Amino acid sequence: MKFSKILVGLLIAATSTIYAQDKEISLEEIYDGTFRQERLQSLQSLDNGKEYLVLNRDRDANTTSIDVYSYKTGEKLRSLLNSEDLSEISGFQGFELSENEDKILLSTEMEQIYRHSSRGIYYIYDVEDKTLTKLSDNKVQEPTFSPDASKVAYVFENNIYTYDIPTGEETQVTIDGEKNTIINGVTDWVYEEEFAFVRAFDWNKTGTHLAYLKFDETEVPEFSMDMFGQDLYPSQQVFKYPKAGEINSEVSLYLYELAAEESEKVELGDYEDFYIPRIKWTQDPEILSVQVLNRHQNDLDLIFVDAEDNEAEVVMNETDEAYIDITNNLTFLENNSFIWTSEKDGWNHIYLYDEDGELENQVTEGNWEVTSYYGYDKDSKKIFYQSTENGSVNRDVYSIKINGKNKTRLTEKEGTNSADFSADYTYFINSYTSTETPYEFTLHSAKNGKLVRKIKDNSALLEKEAAYNFASKDLTTININGNELNMSMIKPNDFDETKEYPLLMFQYSGPGSQSVSNSYFGTNDYWYQLLANEGYIIATVDGRGTGFKGADFKKVTQNELGKYEVEDQIAAAQKLGARDYIDENRIGIWGWSYGGFMSSNAILKGNDTFSMAIAVAPVISWRFYDTIYTERYMTTPQENPSGYDENSPINHVEKLKGDYLLIHGGGDDNVHLQNTMRMVEALVQANKQFDWAIYPDRNHGIYGGNTRLHLYTMMTEFIKEKL
């Protein structure tokens, strides 16, 4: 890892004032920032491993600075850059250092495109001579320094350009880019959303070649959304969106040689209907690694391409009966041997392969999951990672020798620990939380985990919360359908086991997800405290299909999304309803996105168990969702029609007996409003009464202005009235 970046949640209380005891929490307090999780600015480690950078903003002066701090002391040492000293711009929104740290890309006027993508105006700052150069008058995407920082490559209007910093000369690498037709150097919508990457080009180590992907979207069906806005006439957003079973973009790989200013297509092999989810240059400047994945996503080739002759060779193949997860964990060592993570033994673990793709050894093993791979330190020959070795609801940080020996636990407290390492792996910042502890941030030695200094705790937040006398979030397990499932529960603070309480269940349940963890309150947990004050019990159960309990547990739902997960939620509700203190006739369930799909199914298939359900932005039929996500778990509708239809809520509307609230954002580019509209029509034709709400122009997150406050007020009132 070249740079170490973190975005950590500091739960900083705005005041430590003690209020009268038993103060009741309100929705306004939840959404006006009373319990806001403030964010520490993104930290970036300098190469020396002893210092890090922080982006600071002076809102009064309207200036931005990049300041240098000491890991060991936390003290500010100097400013690398302050916009106050720049005449061309008043401030900037983000920055990226060149590999040799002598230049900085500054981003301004940023605008979001989709979930991960954005465009903006960028400037190049020379650290030594303190000059500022505008990269382009156009808003561009994904500008990236060459390794020697002499050039910047970027994408504008679906074409790749390079900019020579010393001469100011711009070179257009591709010329065929066109909206909704050809994309060069950045990904299409479905790759961005489901493979979670945008920049589809990469510099080799010497800056002589650019590898890039080209997407031909010509045959991909278009999707359109009406955006109502403030004008007299609505506008229309049109983009390519391949739904399950439909045509994907045709993706191809090219190598561009800068000296010759020529691109050549790389023939990867005899593949049909495939994905290229990752490209990455190895330590050898002539060898590019390419991951090629079949459409079913259960057969992956790691290919090495020789830039001298564009010859491609498969060096490793991995298959799975269900699917293979794509990660950013591939790490090349100096001799081009590489580190890889895989579930091939039934649990996610770390493996070492030689430069020819032959397995050298399995680095980690056991009936637990590696949940984050942090990197490899070539000096100590240690790999750093996070795992569930101390329970699936917990996380700890470890180091281990690359030969699989001398494993060391670097964190001590039971709960959720995560780390961010300095560039040379001298230190790591540990963020720790548990059900009883808001985030604590501490600096540790990466050698042995020894505490160096405390950075921040949140005693002020706990002091503030004392006025509200919040109920605890209790973690237990519940045996359902032969499995011990993780469960969390919040009960009214004046809970009396001789009384009966209505139960509201929350779940997400998507493949590999986790909703039950040993961590402190999130925003929904504060909402649950409000509901608990009103006399409700709130429970969350992670059923089959969720993550961190092995591949078999996670992948049991393959080809049957919504079957086993729903069975587990219904059975859990029935088992909880049998407890003396829960009213079995007043059990509700709610969820968002995949969770909305689940809550809709639950009130239909479990109509004798659930009396109420709320579905926010739900998938109503997997036929309406995108290829990459859906087919990973379901194959195509043509191959698996029963799997799609038997578990889709839209095909079970006649079973509705309870109270049902359906909510969606009108500008949702991810789970389209089409889902809710089709569900509405099906319910109407079945003459089923229900409640529904559309938030105009809002995306999948349904936020902005007072939107979240309005949404949660609506859901709260619905719960209080119907449950």
Automatic annotation (TrEMBL):
Signal peptide bounds: 1-20
Keyword Glycoprotein annotated: yes
Record key words, sorted: Glycoprotein, Hydrolase, Protease, Signal
Protease is among the record's keywords: yes
GO annotation, biological process: proteolysis
Pfam families referenced in this protein's UniProt entry, alphabetically: DPPIV_N, Peptidase_S9
GO molecular function, one term: dipeptidyl-peptidase activity
Domain Dipeptidylpeptidase IV N-terminal: 98-439
Stored PROSITE patterns: PRO_ENDOPEP_SER
Domain named Peptidase S9 prolyl oligopeptidase catalytic: residues: 528-723
PANTHER family per the UniProt record, alphabetical: DIPEPTIDYL PEPTIDASE 9 (PTHR11731:SF193), PROTEASE FAMILY S9B,C DIPEPTIDYL-PEPTIDASE IV-RELATED (PTHR11731)
Protein's name in the database: Dipeptidyl-peptidase-4
Organism listed in the record: Salegentibacter salegens
Organism classification: Bacteria, Pseudomonadati, Bacteroidota, Flavobacteriia, Flavobacteriales
